[in-house]
């Protein structure tokens, strides 16, 4: 569409449906952040209940509800003659319909996004406070300096990850709805809408990897080590059986 400057295709029925799917994925991503924050909070505050609650079966149901909610939010987009989000091939950005319904959807998505980001941040702060409270109940004599330092690092990592992810999505929302009003320059609007959206979703995934790559790497090493030990033990047992 961009190469051939075909705006008719972008604003066709297929282009509008693609825009609707984009909003579905956006809300599913936002709801997923709330779900992860709740999971983290319940796991720390109610660890026993969390083991019973967060089973594989319940996780599947939660994912189903999450996607259903994301889909229900976009029901107005089915009226794609007046309510839609489409990619403009001339300005290289996603734009809402220039109708009352389109502008209402724009405001709704902005306010809803701010509420979701704020809720996620509040839950993460509650988790951080709960984590510190739990650690304070432990006596200084029952933990070594290394253990205290490790807990402290986990608290900082939890706070930094949650804060950074919330800031990224808040900046994305303000960039799409507010910063684009600063200038009518084509490339400014392109960078504030399309490029910011792409960067936000890319950074969101990178943040998770950067903050947890050590634990993932350590877990793989432990799995590899345990597998090696089991294999060596089996070989020794087989040799002993043969010698006998």
TrEMBL record:
User: Which CDD domains does the entry mention?
Assistant: 7tm_classA_rhodopsin-like (cd00637)
Keyword set, alphabetical order: Membrane, Transmembrane, Transmembrane helix
Principal localisation = membrane
Occurrences of domain G-protein coupled receptors family 1 profile (ranges):
1-183
Q: Record's PROSITE patterns? A: G_PROTEIN_RECEP_F1_2
Q: What is the lineage of its organism?
A: Eukaryota, Metazoa, Ecdysozoa, Nematoda, Chromadorea
Q: Where are the transmembrane segments?
A: 17-38, 59-79, 110-131, 158-182, 194-213
Write down a Pfam family by its short name: 7TM_GPCR_Srx
Which GO cellular component term is one of those annotated?
membrane
Q: Does the keyword Membrane apply?
A: yes
Q: Where in the cell is it found?
A: Membrane
Name assigned to this protein = G-protein coupled receptors family 1 profile domain-containing protein
């Amino acid at each position: 569409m961009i190469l051939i400057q075909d705006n008719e295709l972008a604003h066709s029925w297929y282009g509008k449906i693609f825009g609707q799917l984009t909003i579905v994925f956006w809300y599913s991503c936002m709801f997923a952040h709330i779900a992860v924050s709740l999971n983290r909070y319940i796991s720390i505050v109610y660890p026993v209940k969390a083991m019973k609650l967060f089973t594989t079966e319940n996780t599947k149901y939660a994912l189903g509800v999450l996607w259903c909610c994301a889909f229900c939010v976009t029901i107005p987009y089915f009226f794609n003659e007046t309510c839609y989000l489409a990619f403009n091939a001339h300005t290289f950005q996603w734009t809402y319909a220039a109708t009352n319904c389109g502008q209402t959807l724009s405001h709704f998505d902005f306010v809803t996004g701010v509420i979701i980001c704020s809720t996620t941040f509040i839950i993460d702060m509650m988790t951080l406070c709960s984590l510190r409270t739990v650690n304070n109940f432990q006596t200084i004599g029952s933990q070594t300096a290394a253990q205290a330092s490790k807990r402290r690092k986990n608290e900082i990592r939890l706070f930094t990850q949650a804060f950074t992810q919330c800031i990224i999505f808040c900046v994305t929302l303000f960039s799409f709805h507010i910063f684009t009003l600063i200038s009518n320059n084509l490339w400014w609007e392109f960078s504030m809408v399309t490029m910011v959206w792409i960067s936000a979703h890319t950074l969101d995934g990178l943040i998770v990897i950067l903050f947890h790559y050590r634990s993932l790497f350590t877990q793989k090493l432990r799995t590899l080590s345990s597998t090696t030990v089991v294999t060596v033990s089996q070989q020794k047992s087989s040799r002993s059986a043969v010698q006998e």
